[in-house]
Amino acid sequence: MGARSLVVLLFLMLILSFSSAYQGKKKQYKPCKQMVLYFHDVLYNGQNAANATSAIVGAPQWGNLTILADKFHFGNVVVFDDPITLDNNFHSKPVGRAQGMYIYDTKNTFTSWLGFTFVLNSTDFQGTLNFMGADPIMVKTRDITVVSGTGDFFMHRGIATIMTDAFEGDVYFRLRVDIKLYECW
Amino acid sequence: MGARSLVVLLFLMLILSFSSAYQGKKKQYKPCKQMVLYFHDVLYNGQNAANATSAIVGAPQWGNLTILADKFHFGNVVVFDDPITLDNNFHSKPVGRAQGMYIYDTKNTFTSWLGFTFVLNSTDFQGTLNFMGADPIMVKTRDITVVSGTGDFFMHRGIATIMTDAFEGDVYFRLRVDIKLYECW
Amino acid sequence: MGARSLVVLLFLMLILSFSSAYQGKKKQYKPCKQMVLYFHDVLYNGQNAANATSAIVGAPQWGNLTILADKFHFGNVVVFDDPITLDNNFHSKPVGRAQGMYIYDTKNTFTSWLGFTFVLNSTDFQGTLNFMGADPIMVKTRDITVVSGTGDFFMHRGIATIMTDAFEGDVYFRLRVDIKLYECW
């Protein structure tokens, strides 16, 4: 092989390596980790103290702390500590807890704003994932963001596609969370 | 061109490509996306239910839910769903909604803490941006952070420089938000 | 040196450059910045208005705004503006303020959810850091996340290991925060 063909080969390898580095770093639209989890919210209504996993802690002037407010619950702030399960069965063994808050924040439809953490403690995962985003509840699937993590999810980021999997009046709902992490360390 | 000059050329190209890659990845202080938006907040005061876009939902012991509290509103929690416009006119056609909460959190000056989402739905942008940060209201321009996004803003991050563009007593304010995204996917 | 050994050498260099790029970008488990700070929280109890740095602004139906609620304070929302110091002395000159909120969110143990900002204004650091995460208070050290920053911490991310450094009833606590930033721009 002559010096010239060597240079050409070298040049091709360089181009190849750059383009693969580029794909691998910033334009990676394929998740580096993915999982589906469910969590279950039982709202305190003044009579279910033993079973409730969440409570209204803020309300607008026209509301109170045992019934979600009029006007699509606008202004209600709810704090929660909800069990996370691998399937849609409320009685399955939890693999962690979803902890944080949601806020109803629209007057003319059901919309909430979410800030919470998945604290995972199972054989598969040890660590936390932090979620933030707007949740247009009436839309079938909606994307919120995974902004950070700890433990197995150190420095991870991504998207969570959520779906209301069940809904029973103002007392119970279950969310399906399809977590796709695009930045993994 | 001899083999020697070819190698030199190649070497120069290598250096060039590395430095540009470096700029493009981590030390990119030039935004990859930039936009200026306004949002408008009309606080519920007990009498403006039809027009209000936000409501006090938390207050310290010395406060209530229709008037911002004494001591620079320390402790007030406000939930909002504010229209976003391209210019400073409240009556312009909204391009989205700013949804989330702000908290007044200082006793001796006006300071707030922000956690909210821009839900954009225009011909230019479809997607959400999530904001978080401290807002020293009395400073002319202040930086908060864009921690994540969805849709057109998938995995984006950056800075938002905010400015109080108008202020009418405790009922209305308008914020100018200069969004500069430095990580774009 | 023959053409063959040149190719081998070249190949080795390629592998080396890839692995170092890989370590430098994504698998960097050594902090690029690190600091230890303390912050001090004095909770308003109805009688300490002058000294209090935080106040209960949300409570469940069984609570109120001057005493943390039964059931491990489940549902209490606290807004704070706490001094940050370089050592564990409450009377040391502050280098900034910790501003935001914490929420007690478990019924059967002490757990909180944190969303707050360090506003740093010292000779060493000018800028803000934003924190988010679940805080299992009874655990000796626990990790929350640094999701973003401004100023000297523009686009930074990382982990904060927190420790309860002192605790006096429901009125005072001091947290030690070991901040390790793994993404620095």
Structure characterization notes:
- 3 copies of one chain form a homotrimer.
- The first copy, chain A, has 185 residues and is mainly beta.
- Chain A has a single domain, classed as Beta Barrel (AOC barrel-like), CATH 2.40.480.10.
- Helix content of chain A is 12%, strand content 48%.
- Chain A contains 1 helix and 9 strands, in the order αβββββββββ.
- Chain A has one helix at 3-25; strands spanning 33-42, 54-58, 77-85, 96-104, 112-121, 126-135, 141-151, 157-168, 172-183.
- An 8-stranded antiparallel barrel of chain A has the order 1-3-4-5-6-7-8-9.
- In chain A, β8 (157-168) and β9 (172-183) form a beta hairpin.
- Chain A is elongated and about 85 Å long.
- Chain B binds chain C through residues 25-27, 29, 57-61, 74-77, 103-107, 111, 113, 115, 132-134, 136, 143-147, 157-159, 182-183, and chain C through 25, 44, 46, 55-58, 64-66, 77, 79-81, 97, 99-101, 115-117, 119, 128, 130, 132, 147-151, 154-155, 185.
Note the topology:
Three copies of one chain form a homotrimer.
Chain A: H1 3-25, E1 33-42, E2 54-58, E3 77-85, E4 96-104, E5 112-121, E6 126-135, E7 141-151, E8 157-168, E9 172-183
Antiparallel strand pairs in A: 1-3, 1-9, 2-3, 3-4, 4-5, 5-6, 6-7, 7-8, 8-9
Average pLDDT of chain A, to the nearest integer? Answer: 90
Largest interface: A-C, 42 and 43 residues
Low-confidence stretches of chain A: 18-26
**What is the number of helical segments of chain A per DSSP (H or I, 4+ residues)?**
1
Give me the CATH superfamily of chain A.
Allene oxide cyclase-like
Termini gap of chain A: 41 Å
Q: What do we call the CATH topology of chain A?
A: AOC barrel-like
Order of helices and strands of chain A: HEEEEEEEEE
Structural class of chain A: mainly beta
| Biggest beta-sheet profile of chain A | 8 strands, antiparallel, barrel
CATH class of chain A: Mainly Beta
Q: Oligomer, anyone?
A: homotrimer
